[in-house]
Amino acid sequence: MAPGTLDIRNLSKTYPGGPGLDGCSLELHGGEICALLGRRGSGKSTLANCLSGMVRPTGGELFLDDRPLRLGTPGDALAAGIAVVHQELSLVQEFTVAENILISRYCRKGPCGAFIDWARTNEKATALLASLRIDIPATVQVARLTVAQKQQIKLAKAMSYDPSVLVLDEPLAGLDRAGADWLWAVLRGCRDRGLAVLCMTHQLDPLGGGVDRVAVLRAGRCVGSVPGAQASPGPLVELMFGDSPLGHRPEDLPVGGPVVLEVQHLTNGQHFQDVSFSLRRGEILGIAGVLGAGRSHLLRALAGADPVDSGRILVHGAPVADPRVPVMRRLGLELAPENRADEGLQASRASQDAPSFGGLSGLASLGDLGRRPQTPEAERWLRELQARLAASGAGPKPGGAGKEPDPVPSIVCLDDPGRGLEPPARQRLHQGLWELSRRGLGVVLVDAELDELMAVCQRILVLDRGRVIREIIPETTSLDQLYSLCLGAAGAGADRISRF
After folding, report:
1. Do 177 and 264 belong to one domain?
2. Both 152 and 202 in a single domain?
3. How far is it, in rounded angstroms, from Cα 21 to Cα 14?
4. Vertex 389: Cα angle to 386 and 391 (nearest 5)
5. Are residue 396 and residue 461 in the same domain, yes or no?
6. pTM of whole model > 0.85?
7. What's the pLDDT tens digit per position in 388-426?
C-alpha cells in the first residue's frame, strides 16, 4: 500500500432505529482525492463519525498502512493521522481564529510553560492560514466571520494536525463558487503532497473539482466506484438511488390558484440575471441547480435580504417599490435561510434589516429534528400555524397580518430545510410542506437533494449560472434528466423554457 492508505473493511454501525452503516468497505490511497457520493441518510456522516473516533462502529475493521486501528476517541484518530472536517460548524464563536485552530495546543512560555504565548500562537496560526491561502486575520473573533470563512477555518484546524488522511463531510455547504474553487485548489495541493483525501457529498457537481475516483454509498454500503474522468450523471444516479422509488406527492394539493408572487426580469449582477417566474396560491415551486447557480441569493433577494439591480417583484399583483425585509414580511413573504444556526435561530443578534423570520422561526429549526427528536419544535410550529390559518378564516390574507407581532405568511421561501435531517424527520418535513400547500400558502423551495424536489414540488426551475434555463414538471422528467440539466449536460437555453 502507498503511504497514507486507509482500508475500511466491512464497517457497520447499528442504531436503535436501524443501521447507519451496513458492511461498508472502501480503500483510500495516499495521493488521491476520492469523492464519496450518497443521498442524505446513506451513512456518510456516520462513516465520518467512525473515522474521527466520535462513534465506535458495531463491527468491521480499519487499517492505516496495514496497521490495525482502534479509534476510541477523536484523539486516537488525530494521533493516527486522520483529520475529519465535520458537516456542522464546530467552532467556538467567542474565540479568535488562532484560538480555534490551535485549541489545547497553544504555544507556551514561562516556567514549565505556565503561560500562553499569544504572540507565537497567533504567528503560528497566521503562517498556517497563509499556506492555505486564507486571507483572514488570526486575531479576529470567529463570530464575526461569514459561513464560508468559518468553513475555511475548520479546514485550517484539521490541517494543523498534519494528517496523512483528510476526510471532509459535505465541505461545499455554505460555499459559493469562488469558495468551492478555493477548496478544490487546497485539496489538490493536499493530494500532491501525498495525502489521502475523502470528500463526502450528496451533490454530483463537485466532480468538476478534479477528483481521481468517485465511490457511491447507498444504505450504508459502498456499492461501486469509477475513475473520476469517467464519471457521468446517469450511472452515478443509478448507483445512488438504485431501485428506490421517488416519494409520492399527495393528489389533493391545490393546482391552478391565483398568482401570489410574480418575479419579472430580476437581476443581481453578481449572482443571478433576468430571472422571471410566478408562484400560485398553494403551489410548491422548486429551485434546482448546482453550487454557485444563485439559488440562495435569489431567495434572499425575494425576502428583501439582498439588493437587486433591476427587475420587479409583485406580491398578490401589486409591485413592491421597496423590497426590504420588514416590507416583505408585512406583505406576507418570509424566508427560512440555509444557515439556520447563524441566521434563523439567532434572530436576537440580527439587525432590523436582517431576515427576522417571524412565524418561520419554528420551521427554521427543522434541522434540530434529526439530532433532537425529543424536541419537535418545527412540528409544534406547523400545528400552531395551521390553527392560526384556520382561525383567520379563508387562509392567509395578502399583507393582512402586518399589524400582528407575529404575522402569518402567505408565501414562504425555504433554503435547503432538509439539510442534516435523517429520513424520518425529512418525511415529517414533506408532510408539513404539503399541509402548508393545502392551507393555501405558496412555497418556494431550494433543496440540494434533487430527488426530494421531484417528490415534493409541482414545478421545478433549473438555474444555471444565475439564469433560469428550464422549467420542468416532475411527472414528465426523470431524475437523471434533472441531474443532467443541473450539470449543464442538456445545454438548454432561456428560449427553450417550457411554461406551466
Report:
1. no
2. yes
3. 7
4. 110
5. yes
6. no
7. 555 554 445 444 444 444 567 899 999 988 776 767 777
